[in-house]
Amino acid sequence: MSEQSDAHRSHAAITMRLKRADGHLRGIVEMIEAGRPCLDIAQQLHAVEKAIAQAKRTLIQNHLDHCLDDVVGPLVKDDRRSIDEFKEITKYL
């Protein structure tokens, strides 16, 4: 596996998640056009919103875990404490 593909190994899963969300969103448009109840539509919109947020979170965390390390390079444990804490705190976004 190349270094580029290793750094972006989650992209395939993110793409699949976004394609499912896209199909789901198209279904919601059809629901609206068909006059389905607002509660049903809101529930489905919430599901799409969560799927997109998770895709974004995965992308950002993967970027921090791999791309940031490539830029910073190898550091001794004490020197990377700030970077490791930064990466850890982003999990709470």
TrEMBL record:
Highest taxon in the source lineage: Bacteria
Pfam families assigned: Trns_repr_metal
Cited CDD domains: NreA-like_DUF156 (cd10154)
Family: Belongs to the FrmR/RcnR family.
This protein's name: Metal-sensing transcriptional repressor
Phylogenetic classification of the source organism: Bacteria, Pseudomonadati, Pseudomonadota, Alphaproteobacteria, Hyphomicrobiales
